[in-house]
Amino acid sequence: MQLAFFIFLHIELIIIITCCAKVLVIFAVAIYDIYKNFPLKGVMQVNAKTNRTEPTPDFDTMRDIISNYIQTEESIVSQLHFRHKHGSIIGGFREEIWKQLFEQIVPKKFIIEQSVFIIDAQGQVSNEVDLAIFDEIYTPYIFRNGRLKFIPIEAVAAVVECKSTSRGIDDLKKWCDSIAKLQTSRDAVARMHGYIATSNLEQPSTQTGTRPMRISCHLAGDSENIDALFDFVLQAKENKPQIVIKVNSKNKTLKDWFNGLNHNAPDVEERYKNVGKGFQDEDGEKTKKNNYSLDDYRVFAAEGREVSLLSFNLQFNQLLMLINNPMLFPHKAYAAMFNRVYNSEDSPALEGDNK
């Protein structure tokens, strides 16, 4: 009797274990089907064709980032037009708002200053610049007294003109010409890895003379006629509200931008310029296309709306990377320029100079 009962218990236990195993198998299959059809965010997936793991984008987070850019853009436009309606406070505050926009997108190696003048080693001085984006790590101020600042052209990556309305084309041309006339100097001496860098060019260089990008920021007015003067035109439109960004159409590709920003010295022979070796126009067997247009950096959200601030962030920083580091600072050239002030026949003496 006891033996029969013992056998019965074992049979029941085997049946229970078998049922549990079947339930676990069914549960595992269900979990697999769910995972296969609804992959977890950020989990690496296996491509059935290539048998390689591929990342799964977290689209919800990406949408949140895009939404934040749109909200920030709308907030900036609202602030700019609020200041514009209360005319007694628009001047410096408008520039401050535009400055905050650039501070959100440019790397920390750059400094943004208001109301500066730019000089070169020839003693030329630009018109007043509303905002200057420049590298202060390697290049010192030439002169600073409170808010009055003179910055060498070698350090400047971009200049920004901020106005409530687009200025007349003649005024803007004069302003742009006062920037364009400035020339960087290569009369620098610096220790580099394995050699001493000087002004003596012995092989093609990727940077022979830089120029700052020119940016116009305004609220109202026609921007069609000023596109050719500036690299970027940012217009804050109240009715959208949106920042409409126009890019100078002269430069079609990154290679065009690279040459325009890094080879702005008219006295350098072509044989000493690396005019874009390394840029690839098409995909090859071992290389990929990299000579993009700035249009390739534009970002669009729902219903084809451009996320202008995000587009400009990617476009502007790509161009900053094409410049990368500023020109080596030509200390000797500036010393010679300052010495010419009192030692040149072309320099008029002022009453009281020797007192």
Please give a structural write-up.
Residues 82-182 form the DUF6602 domain. Pfam families: DUF6602. The chain has 355 residues and is of the alpha/beta class. The protein has one domain. 36% of the residues lie in helices and 18% in strands. It contains 7 helices and 12 strands. The protein has helices spanning 2-37, 59-85, 90-105, 169-180, 254-262, 308-323, 331-343, and strands at residues 45-46, 53-54, 110-119, 129-135, 143-145, 148-152, 156-165, 190-192, 195-197, 213-220, 232-237, 242-247. The strands form 3 sheets. The chain has an 8-stranded mixed sheet with strand order 5-6-3-4-7-10-11-12, with helices on one face. A two-stranded antiparallel sheet has the order 1-2. α2 (59-85) runs antiparallel to α3. It is globular and about 115 Å long. The termini are far apart.
